[in-house]
Inverse folding.
């Protein structure tokens, strides 16, 4: 699979241009997001590398500003993380997925990895990266399958156990969000 997807925020201005490649080696994502958060404009680029089962192996997030900042994380798919220099990130132990605040794509990772049946729920611990400050922390999230992925679509309930935020997410056959209520709209390809 080779896909290009664009999302825009439902409030404010911005756009995300994501390129996804899924092949026998795994899943590679490159994306650029331009927008505003907390009354501050930002431009970031992120890359996520996963194995064939959508288990995160590598995450890179960098600002594209004059004074750039970046985060580099590696995972062994068993919940153990290191920084870009190979130093252990014990604060992230047990995290299985990553959630970057300004993209709906990171919801695809647990949706594809968990392969939940209708009515099934699972709580996961994630590496949460907030933008624009690139602050890293852990977050507990819950995914419930409302309609499992099929050849056309699926629907999942996302809950942040940490903050209490909840959303029902319609996704396409590849698990990519088509509409994230009150946050993101997919503008390409159309639903």
């Amino acid at each position: 699979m080779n896909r290009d997807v664009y999302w825009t925020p439902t409030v404010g201005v911005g756009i995300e241009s994501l390129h996804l490649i899924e092949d026998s080696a795994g899943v590679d994502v490159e994306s650029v997001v331009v927008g505003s958060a907390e009354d501050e404009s930002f431009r970031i680029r992120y890359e996520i590398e996963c194995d064939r089962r959508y288990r995160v192996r590598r995450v890179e997030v960098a600002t594209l500003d004059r004074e750039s900042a970046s985060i580099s994380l590696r995972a062994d798919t068993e919940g153990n993380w290191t920084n870009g220099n190979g130093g252990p990130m014990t604060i992230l132990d047990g995290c299985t997925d990553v959630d970057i605040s300004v993209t709906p794509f990171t919801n695809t990772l647990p949706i594809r990895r968990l392969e939940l049946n209708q009515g099934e729920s699972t709580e996961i611990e994630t590496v949460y990266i907030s933008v624009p400050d690139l602050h890293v922390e852990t977050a507990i999230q819950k995914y419930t399958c409302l309609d499992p992925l099929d050849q056309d679509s699926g629907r999942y309930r996302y809950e942040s156990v940490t903050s209490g935020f909840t959303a029902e997410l319609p996704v396409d056959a590849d698990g990519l969000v088509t509409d994230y209520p009150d946050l993101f709209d997919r503008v390409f390809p159309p639903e």
Summary: DSSP finds one helix and 14 strands in the chain.
